[in-house]
Amino acid sequence: RTRSLNAPSPFQQFGPCGRIMKNSAMVMQIQDPASQRLTWYKPPLTVLVIKKVSDASVLAPFVQLVIWLLHEKNMVVWVESAVLEDSLLNEDTQFRDIRDKLVTFKDGRDDLTDRIDFIVCLGGDGTLLYASLLFQQSVPPVMAFHLGSLGFLTPFRFDNFQEQLTSVLEGHAALTLRSRLRCVMHRKSEKRHQAKHMDADEQTNPVHNSILVLNEVVIDRGPSPYLSNIDLFLDGKYITSVQGDGLIVSTPTGSTAYAVAAGASMIHPSVPAIMVTPICPHSLSFRPIVVPAGVELKISVSPESRNTSWVSFDGRNRQELFHGDSLRVTTSIYPVPSICAQDQISDWFASLADGLHWNVRKRQKCLDELSDLTASGSEDTFDEFENLKLYDV
């Protein structure tokens, strides 16, 4: 990998004399994001179906989808083992007939790497976040159906799922590669030789001791009444100290989640960037910043801080960050390939309109609609103005 994950390669020459110095670590060149489309080099056989938990409205679509995948597409269907323990689902006679045909796994115990060809999510954005959590390396293509409350990451409607799934399985689909953040905790209590061994192992196995997040990693003050005092480094260089309630480091996908609520801008998921957003900073001039994808952020508790900090990863795995500990965050080489319902641009702006009612306001009336108002008083006003001019003369 290179330092930047998705940045285009710049033009090499500047005028007759200047050019970029040749470097083996030069930024790689990528295709236009709009041309990123899904293709299968062989027909997919195994599909993982993830449904929203504790939601009775998802049960009927789930059974309908699983039956169709088994009987019509002859695919091997994987589900989480907890799904089979749903009492309401087991009351369905259709589900009982296919229950034994499903392959199950347990979260945290079974490794799904290289076992799944395709993922279908039924529910809200949390189902896609859960799919990202299950695959800490390469993620299969994800097709997300909107059966939840918000639906930023779930562009598909379930009404005609057969036609939409058939089209995707035949390879007719655009992709949005949603970058993830690779987060590694470094504890002060670890011995130096153990840290060196970890660093060497991470180069060959990037999953070791790391967590991949799709939305954001949040550093906050926890239950302490004191302000957080967090030091921020970028590629080893000290940038600033964050004094406030905390800090959000998010992907472009996560920019429309916690970050936008804290005052950050919204970034299209195809933009190669990392968003850094302070939470209620004790400074009027501390604005959110965007840094290039691929840089490494180091976050640690300032030595003069009155308290420790707490870290959570996509709202999970909350743990305390003590003095001397550090959190290192960079762009992961394993994005989440999210299948588009239409295309990258249409899906994103539709999600802004539906989810946040972005730029929704009453339209200004055009002049034709105001003609009755102008016609009623315009002549009188003009005559009065002319009379005043004559009187002044």
UniProtKB/TrEMBL annotation:
It is an enzyme of class 2 (transferase). Keywords: Kinase, NAD, NADP, Transferase. Gene3D superfamilies: Probable inorganic polyphosphate/atp-NAD kinase, domain 1, Probable inorganic polyphosphate/atp-NAD kinase, domain 2. Coiled coil: none annotated. Its EC number is 2.7.1.23. Pfam families: NAD_kinase (PF01513), NAD_kinase_C (PF20143). One of its GO terms (molecular function) is NAD+ kinase activity. Belongs to the NAD kinase family. PANTHER family: NAD KINASE. HAMAP family: NAD_kinase (MF_00361). This is NAD(+) kinase. It comes from Drosophila rubida.
